[in-house]
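Budget justification aside, the reviewers requested a transparent look at the raw inputs and outputs of the sequence design task funded under Objective 1. We therefore reproduce one unedited record. The lines immediately below are the structure tokens for a 296-residue chain.
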């Protein structure tokens, strides 16, 4: 009987796992479950499509459908894994049409990724407030930009700066608000940050540093962002305030979640049982949803 491998998540980690599994076992039945409409695309490229440096969003997709057929990978898009039963070694999935199926596995690899996270800022649920993670997120932002004149970016990490540059390239007035004292606070020191800040300001990007966003103002739609008693008009807001690991599926299955909030694993990337803290045979985690042990 061929080995059955189920991989939940078909982006960078999931596709890498599937390809390596195929290389090591030519007969295995490998199934990839992905909620998104697209598999394996460059999320890092999304701001560059928004800014016009890359022609279209579809250019970010890494592999054509024929690739998965050639590798004999059963890729199921717009399909969600609802439940993992470790005792019966099954995964319950449902597709976009609502059809449910139970998949059995010998090995399960959880590559459930991460979701964008935004602090509990008053008004964050208003229309015109966006976060960027998927191709569909990028489409929504591009549509909003076509009618916007002013934008506020919350967060001055890499995505925040790239989004500010993209919107400025398209002619919007852009202000970046960062809680910490300088841009890229987790990546560079203050001296290097000053050079980046000067470049941003030279290109017309406003900077508000070392101050928190108090609230997002407006009726149903965003109209302004309040920062330390000062208001900045905004037709749209992009929150680039980090991500959190998607651990719900693992947690509900009884797998351990580590101190970083990601799926806990050992040095072989095997998931751990939440109660005994021991490796679960045949169940692994990888990518943004997983913790790993640093060998140094």
């Amino acid at each position: 009987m061929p080995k059955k491998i189920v991989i939940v998540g078909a982006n960078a980690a999931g596709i890498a796992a599937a390809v390596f599994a195929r290389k090591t076992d030519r007969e295995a039945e490998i199934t990839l479950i992905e909620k998104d409409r697209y598999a394996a695309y460059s999320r890092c490229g999304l701001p560059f499509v928004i800014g016009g440096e890359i022609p279209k969003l579809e250019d970010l997709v890494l592999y054509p459908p024929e690739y998965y057929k050639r590798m004999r990978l059963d890729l199921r898009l717009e399909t969600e894994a609802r439940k993992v039963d470790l005792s019966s070694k099954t995964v319950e999935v449902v597709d976009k049409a609502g059809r449910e199926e139970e998949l059995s596995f010998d090995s399960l690899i959880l590559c459930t990724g991460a979701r964008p996270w935004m602090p509990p800022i008053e008004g964050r649920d208003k229309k015109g407030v966006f976060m960027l993670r998927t191709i569909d997120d990028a489409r929504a932002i591009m549509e909003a930009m076509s009618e916007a004149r002013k934008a506020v970016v919350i967060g001055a990490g890499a995505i925040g700066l790239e989004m500010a540059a993209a919107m400025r390239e398209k002619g919007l007035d852009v202000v970046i608000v960062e809680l910490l004292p300088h841009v890229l606070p987790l990546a560079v020191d203050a001296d290097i940050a000053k050079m980046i800040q000067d470049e941003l300001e030279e290109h017309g990007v406003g900077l508000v540093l070392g101050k928190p966003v108090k609230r997002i103002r407006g009726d149903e739609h965003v109209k302004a962002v309040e920062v330390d008693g000062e208001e900045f008009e905004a037709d749209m807001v992009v929150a680039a305030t980090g991500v959190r690991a998607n651990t719900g599926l693992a947690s509900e299955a009884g797998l351990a979640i580590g101190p970083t909030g990601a799926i806990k694993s050992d040095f072989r990337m095997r998931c751990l049982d939440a109660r005994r803290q021991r490796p679960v045979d045949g169940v692994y985690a990888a990518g943004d949803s997983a913790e790993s042990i640093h060998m140094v």
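The mean pLDDT is 97. The helical segments are 12-24, 46-50, 65-70, 135-145, 158-169, 190-202, 248-252. Computational costs for records of this kind are itemized in the attached budget.
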